Amino acid sequence: MVFAHDTEASLIHAAKLINTAEQEVDQLKTGADLDEFLRVNGFTGSRTHTLHELRAVRHLRPQLRAVWTAEEDEAVRLVNNILRNGRALPQLVKHDHWEYHLHATTPEAPLEVRMAVEAAMAFVDVIREQELERLRVCEAEDCNAVLVDLSRNRSKRFCDTGNCANRTHVAAYRARKAAADPLRIRESSVG
Q1: pTM recorded for the entire structure
Q2: Is the pLDDT of residue 137 over 60?
Q3: C-alpha distances in angstroms, 92 versus 104, 112, 175?
């Protein structure tokens, strides 16, 4: 484990939230989409189920992405701003299937504030451990999704939103085969 369990979970959830905007079709178009995202990712606490809540969560995505791709000093400024705006007050809590972990808002805080502060608290750990390089953008040429590299050897290069790794590896394989056998390419293009 690279970070504490709640930090890793928060980073993964933040990446998933950011990536809902990186698909061909926005994955948070409706309240039902948001409900499903929250259910799958285990978010708890109060909800308003309003259009304002949906818009606020959608508005959070570029803010989190900005931290993801920022240099250290800028990341610190952005994270501190999120924490300040969320009136963060870190506390140890235990609920559901989670052992003690940090929450920095009340369960009654607006959903977008809880999501923003949770991500910011995870970013705090990343910055303090000088591990910002673990926050990456997918290396596939046609993908802008983000990923968090929690591998020991820092080798994760592709996101989990599609088949980016597979597509890239297949393309590289085909390119190597074509370079190794140029006559075969010419014959197949002639006939």
Answers
A1: 0.84
A2: yes
A3: 9, 20, 52
Mean pLDDT score across all residues of the chain: 91
What's the rounded Cα separation, in Å, for the pair 29 and 26?
Answer: 6
Find how far residue 53's CA is from the centre of its chain: 20
- Which pair of tokens denotes residue 39? 């259910």
Cβ burial of 2 (10 Å; 0-12, 13-18, 19+) is middle
Dmax over Cα atoms in the chain, in whole Å?
A: 70
23: left (phi over 0), alpha (psi -120 to 50) or beta: beta
| Torsion, Cα of 40, 131, 68, 145 (10° steps) | -60
Query: How confident is the model over 90-130, as pLDDT tens digits?
Result: 888 888 888 898 889 988 999 999 999 999 999 999 999 99
**Residue 176's pLDDT band (cuts 50, 70, 90):** confident
Select from 113, 124, 122 the least CA-distant residue to 80: 124
Alpha-carbon distance 111 to 46, whole Å? 7
CB crowding 101-126: b at 16 or more within 10 Å, else e? bbbbbeeebbbbbbbbbbbbbbbbbb
DSSP 8-state symbol, 45: S
